[in-house]
Write a structure and sequence with these properties.
48% of the residues lie in helices and 9% in strands. It is α+β, with helices and mostly antiparallel strands. A 5-stranded mixed beta sheet has the order 1-2-3-4-5. A 3-stranded antiparallel beta sheet has the order 6-7-8. The radius of gyration is 29 Å and the shape is globular.
């Protein structure tokens, strides 16, 4: 292949690699000055190489292929060529290109000018950016971000088993571009037109046979902040973001009320606290630092717990390990601790390592382990669990809606006429039923909370 040819995807994809330590340069015959440089490691980079009369030649790096498409490289080259024809110096153009906004810059602008001001869930946006977007997009120039690159991120998250999360991340990207398009910072929204994953309404909640296992494993959680967070999420049915940011100033332990000043629905909510929830909060208050703001503090910049996902996985890892050991022993086998070959002392192991060993031992013994793990349960399902057990114990839809702060045109008027007494009774009854199913003795109700 010659050093000059019409750039096409098929041609660029088969460009040979140069010798170690060298670089090959190819020129596009369709666009003046457009080059692609190929390194020995296979990195292919578009650049524009131009000289002006009386000046030295300058190279302006445009972006990497295939993240930057041929069409984008040609369009960017045409813009720079036009600027040069009107007297601009390539070095000045190069400096301007280096100053181009990245997606990280755009997200920072979006967060400060819009999300933190207008969105109660802005912390969720920030968490999604850090977890899913900062690495693939954060440092990318806006001119190199294509619909294909965004679609690939959506596809990768979907393939990892999180189709709904993939949709939320895609919606965030689209929202960032859409809002900054209004501000004149970008000229288009490359996330527009990408098909979302189909979503089904979830009806998953903790079943009677799962509750004893869930509570037993949760009781072994070594991090009390994480343990109590999940317990209060279940016992209050409050939204995840509200429980994470729960403040002592909003809790009245004497009356058994937690007032959330603003919820997802844009309205305040009074959450009734069962005796079990009050016992957890009493204990947390006794061990909290003086003048603590948050019930679940953290050293992060928000000051409160932000991402309990690892703790959530530990619950099911511990439970699965327990179930595996029980099955192994029921078959006459034995799952031993790993010990030092010299001293015989136990060697500390992570839960992940123990679980891997237990799975191996069970498989070698011919034990079926396909159904041993509690499957498909998410943190948000704890909220649904309370509502489901309220329904099981005879609560009306209006009572359930009031306790969970659901909002709809059909039931809002009914909610407005309800006081908290029947809601408290329903929550306490549902809590008693869940704990009875788990084999746990209830806390006696405090007189002030009845």
């Amino acid at each position: 292949m010659g050093k000059q040819f019409n750039f096409t995807k098929a041609a660029l994809d088969i460009l040979p690699l140069p010798a170690e330590g060298s670089r090959s340069v190819y020129h596009d015959t369709k666009t003046t000055g457009l080059q692609i440089r190929v390194s020995a490691s296979g990195v292919k980079t578009f650049s524009l190489y131009r000289r002006i009369k009386g000046g030295s030649p300058e190279r302006v790096t445009l972006g990497r292929y295939p993240e930057m498409s041929i069409e984008q490289a040609r369009r960017k080259s045409a813009e720079i060529n036009a600027a040069i024809e009107f007297g601009a110096n390539p070095a000045e153009v190069k400096r301007a290109h280096k100053g181009e906004l990245t997606f990280g810059d755009l997200f920072k602008e979006y967060l400060g000018r819009h999300a933190k001001i207008s969105k109660r869930t802005w912390e969720g946006d920030e968490q999604r950016y850090q977890q899913y977007l900062q690495k693939p997009l954060g440092s990318k120039k806006l001119s190199s971000i294509t619909r294909q690159s965004i679609a690939l991120i959506h596809s990768d998250i979907t393939k990892s088993g999180h189709p709904v999360v993939a949709n939320r991340v895609l919606a965030l990207i689209s929202s960032v571009f859409g809002r900054t398009l209004e501000w004149g910072l970008v000229e288009n929204n490359p996330a527009r037109g990408i098909r979302r994953n189909p979503e089904k309404s979830r009806d998953r909640f903790l079943q009677s046979n799962e509750l004893p296992r869930f509570f037993a494993s949760l009781a072994e959680e070594p991090n009390p902040i994480v343990r109590d967070y999940f317990l209060l999420s279940l016992l209050t049915g409050a939204r995840r973001s509200n429980v994470l940011a729960m403040r002592w100033a909003d809790i009245n332990l004497d009356e058994g009320i937690w007032r959330i000043p603003e919820t997802k629905n844009g309205t305040p909510q009074n959450v009734t606290l069962s005796p079990e929830a009050l016992a957890i909060l009493d204990n947390r208050r006794d061990t909290a630092e003086k003048n603590a703001t948050y019930v679940f503090p953290s050293h992060g910049k928000t000051g409160h717990l932000m991402e309990p996902h690892k703790g959530w996985l530990r619950i099911f890892d511990r439970d699965e390990l327990t179930q595996l050991i029980e099955r192994i022993e029921a078959e006459g086998g034995h799952f031993a601790e790993t010990t030092d070959s010299v001293t015989g002392d136990p060697i500390p192991e992570s839960i992940e390592t123990k679980l891997t060993r237990a799975r191996m031992v069970a498989k070698q013994a011919g034990i079926n382990i396909d159904d041993v793990r509690i499957q498909n349960l998410r943190i948000h399902d704890l909220r649904r669990t309370l509502g489901s057990w309220q329904a099981k114990t005879g609560a009306s839809m209006a009572i359930i809606g009031k306790s969970l702060n659901h909002k709809s045109q059909q039931t809002t008027a009914i909610y407005a006429r309800l006081d908290l007494d029947p809601v408290r009774q329903s929550v306490n009854t549902a809590t008693a039923a869940m704990l009875d199913a788990a084999g746990i003795k209830r806390h006696p109700p405090s007189p002030s909370a009845e």
